[in-house]
């Protein structure tokens, strides 16, 4: 089965969406299908690798996003889709690509929209007007596609509110071999923390919707309360200069962009606690990767992360320092075991099988 996938806002080097697209593509290939991914980029390219065929089309940068690009040339993309002749369409976007649902319906091609972001969350700042706008756009999205796939109940809530009857839920997964407690590194701990210090990690894009300043605020509050802690901020983004100014004079280390996934796993496994303060996360792959490494996570109670993290961390409204203290109060072995046990509920083979079931695609021996 040829599954053509479309996505916007895919960073060239990292990000949860990029990770998910790659893992799903590799799973589709292993299951005997033909995935083709189309994403925006700086220039055209057409390559094939472990995740299948990846076509990059030139797309403009969205101002103020720190480099995110979108696909906007409908005619060119429609011609490409006609040439590719998909059996199924999978669209990870509801902004410039919503029209592809109608394109697929006119040709009798089943189409699925995967909801990777919360419009209700993004427009929350606008108050009642923002909620009404989100409802209108979500109604258009669910009508444009045969099915809307959400990865958590939290993500599905904004569609449930408008009575969308074509929802399906399939959680994402984590590489349980790569992200593993065995990745903990004594050398890495020695680099960032003195003996006996608590090592906190914030791992993610440094952009406004992720609220990274909350992690620095938590570190400052903990130290003021007598907790000997240090914070490593791993990631890049438009807020980095402002965050570095905020952290000046405090025990905060900023790393360069970490492209090596093994290095990310080592950092997460070495940490005592990971902080994931984003309030509109619809799943939170970075938090799940931390859990797989045996590291508990403190998350925003406003996001989908409490649903993913469960009892393997702490969910707070704004007092992230209090959440860290709550986690640290548990015995080390107990909290690390709980984190790993929670992560083992999520695997990429299970996610791939779920996505393929939504497509009505058979799963071969390559995917359990």
TrEMBL record:
Transmembrane segments: none annotated. Coiled coil: none annotated. Signal peptide: none annotated. Keywords: Glycosyltransferase, Transferase. Residues 15-177 form the Glycosyltransferase subfamily 4-like N-terminal domain. The keyword Transmembrane helix does not apply. This is Glycosyltransferase. It comes from Dactylosporangium aurantiacum. The lineage of its organism: Bacteria, Bacillati, Actinomycetota, Actinomycetes, Micromonosporales.
